[in-house]
Automatic annotation (TrEMBL):
It comes from the Bacteria. This is Uncharacterized protein. Residues 133-144 have a biased composition (Gly residues). Keywords: Signal. Residues 125-154 are annotated as: Disordered. Residues 1-25 form the signal peptide.
Length: 154
């Protein structure tokens, strides 16, 4: 959760920096940076909602993979923009460094979420194949909830 807060703080700080720059000094490139950061704020909000907004919630890895994928794509665009326009748009080094760190964390979380989603998909596929073949696991008499009791003397 702290990575989300850090990302949000860095984003808000960067948006504040761009908004406070004199209007005559802002170019379309600086405005493009603002668009990237506003989009990032929206994605961070989606991440927060996915995580339950501070409440402990079971997260669906497939949904997390999708949202973190968007965050990483946005981070790639943001880093590219910052490397090109940092000086012209007066982006402090601390904002760039914070953005880079948050981007690395987002990449790690995306990797973990997408890995878990792939494992879930593979497990579901195996279960479906076993169910179609009739060879599913038979614990306690199968998935019917019945238990066969041996006949005869115990």
């Amino acid at each position: 959760m702290t990575h989300i807060r850090l990302t949000l703080m860095a984003t808000l700080a960067a948006v504040g920096i761009f908004a406070s720059a004199p209007a005559s000094a802002q170019s379309s490139a600086c405005q493009e940076g603002q668009k990237i950061l506003v989009e990032r704020q929206s994605i961070v909000k989606q991440v927060s909602e996915l995580m339950g907004g501070g409440k402990k919630k079971q997260v669906d890895p497939r949904a997390a993979c999708t949202v973190f994928g968007k965050l990483v794509t946005n981070g790639d665009a943001g880093l590219k923009w910052m490397s090109t326009n940092k000086d012209w748009c007066q982006v402090p080094d601390q904002v760039v460094q914070g953005f880079e760190q948050d981007h690395k964390r987002a990449q790690t979380f995306r990797s973990q979420a997408c890995g878990a989603a792939a494992k879930m998909a593979a497990a579901e596929k195996r279960a479906k194949q076993q169910a179609e073949q009739g060879g599913g696991p038979r614990l306690g008499g199968g998935l019917t909830g019945t238990l066969s009791v041996p006949k005869g003397a115990l």
